[in-house]
Amino acid sequence: MNTEQAIQSFRDDYAALRAEIGKVIVGHESIVEGTLTALFAGGHVLLEGVPGLGKTLLVRTLSEVLDLSFNRIQFTPDLMPADILGTNIVMETAGGRREFQFQHGPIFAHLILADEINRATPKTQSALLEAMQEHQVTAGGQLRRLNEPFFVMATQNPIDQEGTYPLPEAQLDRFFFKILVGYPSGDELTEVLNRTTTGVQAAVKKVLQRERLLELMRLVRDVPVASHVKNYAVRLVLATHPRTDTAAPIATQYLRFGSSPRGAQTLILAAKVRALVDGRFNVSFDDIEACVAPALRHRLILNFEAEAEGVTTDHILGQILRDVPRDVQAVNV
What we know:
single chain, Rossmann fold, five-stranded parallel sheet, 13 strands, globular
């Protein structure tokens, strides 16, 4: 298969996946596209929005259209790490002997829905750190590999903070995208009512096999990025580091810490997916810019002045995009 055929095949599979999800999810085009972008790039997604906006439904629908194993974990304050990873239990053999056997937890699936992830204690949240980064868990005294591909789709409610435990920066950094889920429009809400208050129920079918998804994920990695475009992504990330020579003025004013190197990795991978969806085998400046907000918004730490003035990371990133030019000579990194 040549390059043009590979690109067209990617677009066809992406469109088929998007169409099936659209049978259930009304509107939210940017949220669905962001989730699929992270999926093809091999990253995890954090969906943030008030209750009832379809965050859980989106992940459930995604599990139905992909030929992948799926587990849902409802995070609560009394959830323990063993409830996620698994534990050793005593089993009696046919000969009457007793021995320990490892009982796999729900983390051993391709697609994990971590529902209301900020309701679990930090001890339980940390059980996901190794799994999300290394695709493995250490449990029962042994290292166990997770199924490939492995994705964590987490949800959290930004307004109900009672009985919640904010995710630490180290865990937030392991999410490829943080996607904000907003309210539907009037027309979209009407369509939601038409679909959910009648006897009609949408049926979706599986459109992407595991092996094919892995193949498409490898194709994403093969998309070339010109040095000047890659340099633009580097300069955008460096501009978020306050009190440095490369910092944007707004970053020094309102940020305590800027993006980690994972932010730059995310920009490049997400831009590659966007290029393929657009039918190109090269990354453009527009691809990079379109991915800045979901890729970096959760990787910036605001200072007291920003919180007091109600300045958001999205506002800061918007100003950085205006401050950092596209066409300059390469910087030393």
